[in-house]
Description:
alpha+beta; SH3 type barrels; elongated; four-stranded antiparallel β-sheet; 2 domains
Amino acid sequence: MVRKELLHVCSGLMVLGILFLFCSSLSFAAIENSTEPSPAEETKADDAEWEYVFEDRQDPFMPFIEPEVATKSIPEEDEVILTGMQLFEPGQLKLVGIMFSAKKKYAMVEDVTGKGYILNEGMPVGRYGVVSQIRNDQVNITETRTVAGKEIVTPVIMRLNKEGDR
């Protein structure tokens, strides 16, 4: 009994669906045959007459943030002229020897090409580093950077390799 009622409901829905499709196809055919301009043709006609007026309006293609304002807080790398040991970052140097005199301590380093240089305490190394201390077996370098108004201090230690170490 329930199956027969369900079958009648389903067949009724199918008939309604077929009628809907048939009627909608008729309405599309009527639209195609009409002589009224389509919405696309209307916008083409409107576009030919329409003009954007810039008076008292902001240019819509200008960026919201000007490049000069966005980069004012970042220092330009070209502003600082690097000389001497500032041309080398501590990671590019290898500590090969340490010498002591009565008044001063010296550290000998070499770059990747094998060229040697002498470091003193207080000497700038790299863009942000300064030789803070020379010990018997290591050189301490303190790198100080200012990022977003905060000072970041990073210690760098260059160790002297003993004979036979790599």
